[in-house]
## 1
Amino acid sequence: MGSFASVADRNDIEAEATWEARPLAGSMYALLAETAARHANQPAFSFQLTSGPTDPAETLTWAELKAKVTQTANLLRALGIGPTDVVAYVLPNTTETAVTLIAGAVAGIVNPVNPLLDATQIASILRETKAKVVVTLRAFPKTDIAAKVAAAVAEAPDVHTVLEVDLNRYLTPPKKWIVPFLRPGHAVSHKARVLNFARECASQRADALAFADPAGDRVAALFHTGGTTGMPKVAQHRISGMIYNGWLGARMLFTADDVVFCPLPLFHVFAAYPILMSVLSSGAHVVFPTPAGYRGDGVMHNFWKLVERWKVSFIVTVPTAISALMQRPVNADVSSLKLAFSGSAPLPVELYHRFEKATGVTIVEGYGLTECTCLVSVNPPAGGKKIGSVGIPFPYTHVRILRCDAAGKVVKDCGTDEVGEICVSNPGVFLGMTYTDPDKNRGLFADERYLRTGDLGRIDAEGYLYITGRAKDLIIRGGHNIDPAEIEEALMSHPAVAFVGAIGQPDAFAGELPCAYVELVVGAEVTAEELMHHAQKHVHERAAVPKHIDILDELPKTAVGKVFKPDLRKRAIARVYDHALAKAGVEARVGEVIDDPKRGLVAKVRRTGVVEAEAVEKVLGEFTRPWDFDDRAG
């Protein structure tokens, strides 16, 4: 196993063989079988329903995981799922979730669906993917997933079978006895069969597949993006892209002796590919705490004790979780930790340093996206890590910084440190067919080879990639994509509103929070508080409700009358940073926010009294957007 510390190391790995020439498993089941043969009696997957450091947990060895996947794949095939048929799951994290993810890709095409979406959105995804089987929860106290899925299936005519997972099997008496009396009821208006997942799987053989393992590369997963407004885009993932992600983790990071702690959801590519597929390739042991992961009761409180319990080598996290963890003491032996991985959103510098000081562990930031079957780049685990950078592109991943026209024709190939659109070619990119909807693939590829990510960035002289903005205009709240159109449409429905610009304002915890700027109809009168109440009633998803609304005399606009959002972002950065500095008692304020060609929007801070740079850094280091002292300040 070669190290991965620099661009030269990456190039050396590529020089060993072409990607196509590498002797890799040809199917998901072959990959699982190879790992299970090497590490049969070693732990593969652990799940605990509750978060206590001594609470019961279920652990499957590699041999047991293979048997569960085999039974589930055989069941899905018996239910009519072939290589081109879709099985969806709408589940929180459980053992069954991981088993269904793998087995669904063995028998057919697996479609993970975010269980936090509402019934209408779930139904639209099931219709888009033409799912025939849905795996979900049986009604259980304190969750409405079963009710939402029942309503969604009624609007998804291709679904003929619902398989229910009963969380009660994870409980011990007396709770186990009580749950049947507390199950919430819900209406069922669909005509699909409803079967017990565990009972149906148990009826299938566990020693071998009852069907021929489909040969050749094919689409084996459909992952939806966003989901905040209307129909989310659905990205297609091939077996080769899934195995590529796993190969990267096994080649550069995990061994069979490692334990990976992953409180992230298995409906998201981060948990599904860089983690689960890497574990599947390396034979490492992965631990999922509680169905809700980081949001589970007591997970933050018990986090470090769980690290000690499982002797964790690697933790998988996001900036919002790191921020919450740093508000608690490291109250356990975490000497087993090697590294922490952070993704989904930019990591503030101050948070990076605070975590490293508290734990003695370095955070490695990376970059990936659903459309690439996830992984694109990482700060090299064995090499230099540049805070604010998302690192070096992985082997066999080629990144270009381009300027393209609407059809994808390259107008300019950007030079070192020049900002343009990040465009990616790697084994995870499904050329020409990234999305299930052909219309969404038009203009998506530069030079007919490079996926246009919609992210703006630059590459420095040492080959490190930086993200400087988003051409897509999405608001990213704690890793969750929010379409500003959802907010704008809701506020535009108010009779007093003429124009709306919704953007993400900086936030020390979530990275960004939605906010809105409003221009009123001439002569109309309404307060920001009234508009906030209107938004709370009409914005589709709670996470998208703006946290701040400003009424301006006139919104900045382009020459063709579109709201000019860069000016709104500057205004929001200045407002949030000024508030944070004043709250901390630091005598400084934002004089202006400039658009730096390399760093994006940069706040220029002016002293209003005697103040040291460290005091400003302590406050503004909580945010991801950069700042400098304005040299004109006295």
## 2
Amino acid sequence: MHFICRSFIGSHSSTSWSQYWENEPDDFDLASQKGHLFGLINLDETTTLGRDIIFELNQNYYSSDTSLDVISSLKNTLNSILENPLFTNSGLTILVAIVLKNRLYLAILGNGRVILSRQNKIASILVGHDNEITTISGPVFSQDKILLTTDLFFRSIGWNRIKYFLSENKIQTIEENFLSALYSLNNQENQSAALIQTQEEENLPPTLETDREPDSIETKATTFPKKNILKKFFSKPVFVSYHDSYQVNKRKKINLAMAITLLLGLGLISYVGYRKNKASRIETQYQQFKTELDQKINNTLTLKNLNINSALESAKELQTIYQQMSILNIHSSELADYQKNINILLTQTGSDNTFAPDFFYDTSLIVNNPQFNHILLNNNKLYLLDSNTGRIDLVDTDSKSIKNLLINNQLKGLKNIIENSGSFYVYNSDSLSLITKTGLDSKIKFTSPIIPTSVQSWNGAFYVLDPSNSTIWKYAPNSSGFGAATKWLKEGEKTSADATSLAINGKVWTLSTSGQITPYSLGSKSEFKLNQKLEINNADNLATTTTGENLVFVGDDNVVYIINKDGNIISKYNLGSLKALDLTLNKNTVFVLCSDQKIYKINL
């Protein structure tokens, strides 16, 4: 079996060194028992130490007991290196491949990986771990490609690109792709790999044999009488017959055809060379753009946690770089992944040109000319309140079946719908009422000076946001319904005068018009600060869940903000021309009721 080998070694430095090598003993008997060895070494030490390790590995393996199988010999050899105190703390990685009698034996010491490409299948067949020896063996076939790679090389080039490179048929194309990817890396330390392609030996024609030695073969020369030659030559005049003229013309045509063929061949070679050089230039340009794009994506992700508006501008710059890459018309699958990631960044930073929320339900299927303005999620069911015409309907989020709960003029002019201990309530500026099958049953009267802006429930009690009095009122349940209002905030604590909504998940959270979020615990303000300033004129519809880590609200009617409880702005989604009337959420999904009377969802 023959082998075609290519190595891809990054530039060395004072702290890293890599080397690829092969070995097969001259002794035929030993070679037939130990096979052909391929090796790749990477370490954080000097060249001298690396060559000492290679010498010791070759020496130990080929001098080991021939009665041992190949895998055992490899393990013993690598274990002797691993236990040698001279080689400790060297960041050592060794990958060894042995081919013997159409069988492949692989071993890794340290962090490395072996990838096999066979026909149209590519798989990672062996992964090494720090200070461990891992092995595997199996049959090897003609045209198999075996890639030995350090862990850093694998992560830097990327699994998708490695599979793409190895899918090429020509070894030269694979080599050019890997070298181009390697040289485009800013840091090439500890970046090394080796590619081995197997192929069957060609059947050579049999050797011609003779019974006599070359020196013993006799040669004879034929002689002609000189007189006869002269007589024959001068006996008649010399002339060129028409047959000779035909042969001359024929030769001219043959020579002309050969010249044309040669010119065409030279032209074809020049064209192929031109195309190859052009492809190389395009690949180099692509890799330069790719390096810039990767760095810009990382910067945008970092900036997203610091200033989401600046992150949006950075994401738009990503789109410009991507467009320059796409013009090169190569690596389409990788470009598709980049476009997807860029669109996600644009969407999560508030671009109104890329975000298209997932459609969930059209409320016109419930009633003609719907006017729903409030939404609540409870036990996988969406409750919709239409306070204009006076109706409440239910949509099952799993089956999308619908059910009308109540149609009553008493529902007109109500502010919102709330769940409390399995029952549902609605409220307005005067009272809070239980929803029954026939109508509303008033449970709480909001007496002066209470002016409710937002109401939520927790552990059976109702909490009422009253920014006009800068406080939060609590109505605790009792045997007859609910007790009288008590100030829940401790003495000296106040809510913002422009607070718009309330949400509870153990802590009580308030939201102001400008987007300021304030948490309270046991009636006292808790420590909380957004990691960046929001530029909002009208924030409302604050919501959270009892188990989730996120707070969501609507800013300026068409932007949905996602914020975690540590004060980090996760993302903001711009609905464009749509206006968000209300929203609700579970742990993983935000449901938004929009002005077109459709319900959309945003996956967290």
## 3
Amino acid sequence: MRVLVVDDQELNRVLLQFLLQDEGYEVVIATNGEEALERFDDNEIDLVLLDVVMPVMDGFATAPLLKEKAGELYLPIIFITALDDQASLKRCLEVGGDDFLNKPFDKVILSAKIRAHARIRALALKTLEQKKQLEYHQNQINREHEIVDHVFKNALMDNYQDKEVVDFYMSPHSMFNGDVLLIATNPVGGIYVLMGDFTGHGLSAAIGALPLSKTFYSMAKKGLSVGDMAAELNNQLLQLLPDDMFCAATILEMNSSGKSISLWIGGMPDTFLVKPDGTLNKIINSQHMALGVLEADEFETTVLNIETNPGDRVVLYTDGIIESVNLEGEMYSETRFEDFFQADKDTSIETLINELIAFRGEAEQNDDISMAYLTCTNKLQAMVEPEQSFSKLPFHLRLEATAEELKHTDPVVEMLDVVSQICGLSDHRSVMFLLLSEVYNNALDHGILKLDSSDKDGDDGFMDYYFKRQDALSALTQGDITINAEYQPNGNRIIFTITDSGDGFDMSSTSDNTVNDKEHGRGLSLLAELAESIEYSDKGNEVRVVYLLEA
């Protein structure tokens, strides 16, 4: 420990130097305040013994300057004085002194005071070092956050931006958002929307957005179906995320006419379909597990297909909205959220968020909050790029799936993987998937599994129907479905013929050769809008769908 002794009297300096060196301290000598400041600059001083009355610069003027030079680090200054009036002693403390010692010196008291202040000095040194380390690590964290934030912004910069088509609000609980919203157009004039909610909050939750966004945008450019997207995203997250992390997600595709949507919903809150007047029209439940949970052979790619009208809005949101809590511990709840959508009321996102903030009051936000409105419109049709040339060669493909294969494979995906390789057809994959999957699912559900669409009625109808379907499929021992695909280059059309081994249905019970399923999903009536023609066999177990490939 190094002590600076400042006194104009040589006898005092010698005596203090002798006492201090005898205690094992290093001593630096100064004869006045000016000299003390110079010695302080040239040496690492741990404690100062400072006389009050000195020529050139006295102790009262020197003390604050020494404190200033010491900066944040505690520098003990013990005044050595013969003054004993209270005003003088008070001033010693006011100008920066930490203690005082009366002349003549008492060796025991001097030694005790120095040891006491040395302990405080040691603690101050340790605290300052810890503070510097914390500042260093904080600067490192801030820099890393800046880098990660830059990466995230670049990863999500491909999002399609048009408030008239997709309006959204996102508010993270912490610096990084565990919610993700991805928006992209497809090659045939439609639009994809993915809203996801990763486990947890902050950077650990947000890190999954990088592989998710890269895969999503890549598949959107190829015009893949919603089911295919879900399967690939599940595989990606299953490989990358730890076992305790997953991503609840809704993946949606709106076709170019704005008259239908396809949804894959896994682990998310209900999706709402709202009429233009603000009325809640339909509540669509989640049917699947979240992404990143199930292995590929367990994962379900089944999608819901729903008819929409121009001006309808699809409302997507994460559970941060309905689980928002006020100071009384009361949640905003699904009921309040549903009640918000009423006819002839302003049900914009801005109005909803203001209502949510008012409900929460002074309570802090307890989760990431995200919501998006997709407006059903044909606005994107004008953005469709010209089609590439079509193959000049005719093709005929046939796929037969037995009962065992129906249980463990998706013949629609298998067929489209091959058909999409034909020159010019890959850009039509999304529409072909809608056509083929609708007919295939009807053949499987009603022709082979003999399920009744009325099972979907009721509050939990879709979920009950889904479980019945799973049970029936698991118990399936016989039955088969054949898919034929015929490409005709002369007419620029592809013809799908789907035949099931079931009993068929009574054609006289339907009108215009369509199955009356309008209350359950989008129904076969949507096919008439997308296909050039649809024909059923007399027995009703064979459907022929003709799709025109417009150049």
## 4
Amino acid sequence: MSPIFLTLFLLAVAIALFATEKLPVDVVGILLVIALIMTRVLTVQEGLAGFGNDVVITIGGLFILVGGLVKTGIVDLIGRRLHRVAGGNEFILTALIMTTAAASASVLKNTTTTAMFLPVIIGLAAKAKIAPSKLLMPLAFGAILGGSCTLIGTSTNLAVSGAIVRYGQEPLSMFELTSVGVIVFAVGMIYMLFIGRPMLPNRGASESLTDDYSIREYISELVVLPNSRLVGKTLGESNINTELELNVLGIIRGDQRQIAPRASERIEENDLLIVEGKIDDILRVKEEVGLEIKPDFKLNDQDLESDSIELFEVMVMRDSELVGQTLKTLRFRQDYELTVLAINRHGETFINKLSDVRLKFGDVLLVQGTRQEIEPLVVDRQMILLEDVSASSVRVEKRKWAIAAFGLFLTLSLSKLVVGFDIPLAVCVLAGVLLLLATKTVRYSEMYSLIDFRLLVLIACMMSFGVAMEKTETDIFLAGLIQNYFGEYGPMYVLAGFFVLTVVLTQPMSNQAAALVVLPVAVKTAVALGLNPRTFIIAVTYAASFSFITPLEPACVLVYTPGKYRFMDFVKIGTILTIIVFIAAMIFVPIFWPF
């Protein structure tokens, strides 16, 4: 069996296994690499080369950089702004997500954009009560389409720009690809809104949100400080409900208590607001200048950054000595050295001060303190520990460092355009990661938990397969078929043939490798036929970016697991999108770059 035939056979088997989903996609990737080594298509070093590829390091580092944005609440802030604009309208959300992703990817590259917005869209889906699978594929597709609009939108565009100089062509300008890129994006978004969106699966929505600690409704107390922007405003004007997503149940002002206050009630300094909300929204109060959680405990301060002080959720047990008593009579803070920030009582609300609430069996308390202090209560069966939520607390004071780390990464990645010196992308992302660790924006203990290693394994395995395509010259063999069988039908057929071939090769190979393999053959064919090589160069460049048919493109891999997609979801929706953008490219590329 020839190496070319063997490589194509293994590719067909791998795609079949991906489609059946009998095995996890990363396991299929590992089996593919083993088969390539055992059949001697690749040596051991070549087969494992993908695991040392700088792209794997880059994507792993991006997970950590995005983790810094999540830990400091920036991602959630973006999600809330998008939700405020679009509400729960799935159509508007899809259009907004694709447009935002495309605009970002035109500058940040599609993989970076997808990684950055992935947690944003997951959080946005939860707020809008829409399954993540309805929004994550449009995110990836929008980023891929947007990356084709500028020179720096993808590394493939930069690679092609550098490679065509050897063929006597001028490098691509910054916005040379923008004209057709914007048209193709518009066509692609119209397809996703009206045809692709209804075809998206409805998976990934939580079935029991009340069982999730981060969704559980809590009652807490907020004190209005003298410097608060809310002083003098009515409850309606304060937008506490819409901006902080907290429901004001009552106001305690000195000895006066108002139950279910009206929207016209004015807020005064030192008012105690009894609010109900989700744990994440309560912890986010630190962002609001002039509001503080009562008792007097400052979230995200230096104590919380230490290894000993943590946040816990604990439930009061049936036979606990705490049942029937209040926090005040228990002298809870003094005797147990634990601070209660909020109480959850399923199905019941109250407007008393937390210290005056009589505890019942099943009450869930959000408390701050040391594990050493809470363990005796757990051991004595007074309480049961539900969750350690310290890691989920928002580190607002570290926000500037999360932005600085991402800014450092972006600045270094654009170094070649600014100063003419090219810093490897992996080095750029690692510099940002080191800044996060040095400032404790991301703690070392949680760094590796932010990385999805299954996705990295899949990407590494497919890169190794790309090496097999090049080593066996399978790619050149396929390019030769286009030249031999389509040349006699005219330039449009030849151009279409190279476009389709490039799209096909981007499934098992990296986009950059596919473009650089097809490019010399396409240019040589254009010259032989007396055609404009620039037309073929642009078509191949676009084709290398349009990888929608399988979830093997890095941007698609990133959303594959969180969206709970199946392989055939991409085949079904992505194939139609590929055909549509192919038609658009075939119409407009020859117009802007005539034969």
